[in-house]
Amino acid sequence: MEDSKPFGMKQEGYSNPSPIMKTEELLFRRGKVKQALMIFRDLFSKLLSAYKTDYSNPAKGKYKALRDAAMLMKKKYQWVNCQKRVGHVPGIEVGDRFQYRNELIIVGLHRQFTNGIDYVGKGNYSLATSIVVTNRYDNARNHGGSLVYIGQGWNPNVRNDSMPCDQKLVGGNLALKNSMDARRPVRVILKVDGEYVGGIENNINDKFSYMYDGLYLVEKMTQERGTHGKLVFKFLLNKIVEKPSKCVSPKDGLIKNGNKFGQLDAFTLRKRLKPNCYATKDVIIMNDISKGQEKFPIRVVTSTNGDLSFDYIVNNIYVDSFKKPMLCGCDCVNGCVDCEKCACIVKNCGTIPYDSKKRLTSRVESCAIYECGSSCKCSSSCFNRASQSGLQFQLEIFHTESKGWGVRTRSFIPSGVFVCEYVGEVHHRREAGSRQNLDSYIVNMAVNECFIDATRHGNIGRFINHSCSPNLQAVEVVYDDKDKNLPHIMFFALQDIPAGREVTFDYNSCKPRFIRTGNNACHCGSPKCVGRIYI
Ligand SMILES: C[S@@+](CC[C@H](N)C(=O)[O-])C[C@H]1O[C@@H](n2cnc3c(N)ncnc32)[C@H](O)[C@@H]1O
């Protein structure tokens, strides 16, 4: 699995919601964070090999090396961002990944070795600063940037020899409640699947890392009985959607750095800035290009001009008439789990394409996925209808440096989930040849003799660029959609995608193929780039 962004590596399409601070100072702080991480990793490596002979269990040796490296640095005053704070931490950007949890401590992102909640102050005067979200607890991350976080205290999913008891409104739990009451933001760090690229070799297969996902607001706190019979606190947090950094409002000519909370509460007059201080001056030129047709508004952000002349649609327009094969739906009334009985699963060669969370279970190599549809007896929430409920995440159209428009996500997208469809006018394939050199929005379908042209009518899918290291895959999905049983082109996440990251797919690896146009030089910036968009 591809990594998102190891610390220090900046990628196109990323927007940095840093607190107001001069660029030079930000760079200086980032340099300090980077330096602290280098010292930590070097120390850890040395300690790890020193402890090799002392510990027969490599996991124990690793744990001690990690802890000792952090404590040695503390003794030498090598930790950075030492003062606990609410809000972003200078030098750390949303989307930064860290290999080890102790790295969060030494850079000041989350200053707790094991506790999931970190906070400042005491009792009723405390405020939560950060939480680490792992799947050890019943924490649930929902689509669209909200999550349910289980409070701290006795937890049945953690090895615990004592008797279970009710969670108490003290420490971190109280701090989260105080943050809710005071409407103060909390940093969220996600434990995400996937190896850390360029990480330290340690013989222990670390299949996860930690990603800073930005600021959230605690919206609600409830107390419920957990599976172990005792009371637990549940906190509902919503991601704060921040404006891109250095965002210029077209009306007032101000540069806005964030939102109304705490240290982000700042507006700076553009004329006060030194020349060359900021590289980008992104302007929100449209608040919702879909004009309310999508579940989430899709804004358009740019620092330059670009052509946007097309009609936004959310469903394919069938221009030609097609002989539509009749699809017979399934008769499942208790969920489509029987690979032999469910008529739709049978069409997928007897394999269930999605898991219970509607995530693709593996990379799709076959031609198409057959989902349940309107003539099936299963419910509309059946997991085998993963791509039929529209957008699940806030996406944004932005102007890239060298690829024209592109699409980036404003919230974290977990690996395997449906992201969006490629919508346009559906024609017979024989038409495609005559249009070939006109535009770059035509995709040939693999399954039927047709193609989708999003030149004049399309949706957000038409703005997704090619990458030689993509984070989306395009899949043809067929379902009984009233009378249109032609395939749809659906994009699914190939990996966890952090907020702010551009979403891309490989125009050549997918079964639906883009028709080659004149412009073929690839600017994806991947180390694996083959230099061409269309092969
Ligand atoms: C489907 S459109 C993608 C959206 C397009 N960037 C826009 O501005 O509307 C495909 C076109 O985008 C550009 N493009 C996509 N990926 C690219 C890449 N990796 N490098 C350079 N140009 C790219 C090429 O002009 C290509 O023909």
Concise overview:
Pfam families: Pre-SET, SAD_SRA, SET. The chain is an alpha+beta fold and 535 residues long.
Q: Indicate the low-confidence ranges by residue numbers.
A: 8-19, 245-280
**Average pLDDT value?**
80
Relative strand content: 15-25%
The small-molecule ligands in this entry are: S-adenosylmethionine
DSSP summary: helix tally: 6
Subcellular location: Chromosome, Centromere; Nucleus
Pfam families: Pre-SET, SAD_SRA, SET
Keywords: Chromosome, Methyltransferase, Nucleus, S-adenosyl-L-methionine, Transferase
Main location: nucleus
Describe this structure in words.
This protein has six helices and 28 strands. Helix 1 packs across helix 2. The chain starts with 22 loop residues before the first helix and ends in a 21-residue tail after the last strand. It is of the alpha+beta class and 535 residues long. Residues 8-19 and 245-280 have low confidence and may be disordered. The chain has helices spanning 23-51, 58-75, 101-106, 171-182, 343-347, 432-435; strands spanning 97-98, 117-120, 127-133, 140-142, 146-150, 185-193, 208-225, 231-239, 247-248, 254-256, 267-269, 282-286, 299-302, 311-312, 317-318, 368-370, 395-399, 405-409, 418-422, 425-428, 442-444, 450-453, 457-458, 465-466, 472-478, 488-493, 502-505, 513-514. A hairpin with a 5-residue loop joins strand 7 (208-225) and strand 8 (231-239). The longest helix is centred in the N-terminal third of the chain and has 29 residues, at 23-51. The strands form five sheets. A nine-stranded mixed beta sheet has the order 11-10-9-12-13-17-18-27-24, with no helix packed on it. Strands 1, 2, 3, 4, 5, 6, 7 and 8 form an eight-stranded mixed beta sheet that branches. The protein binds S-adenosylmethionine.
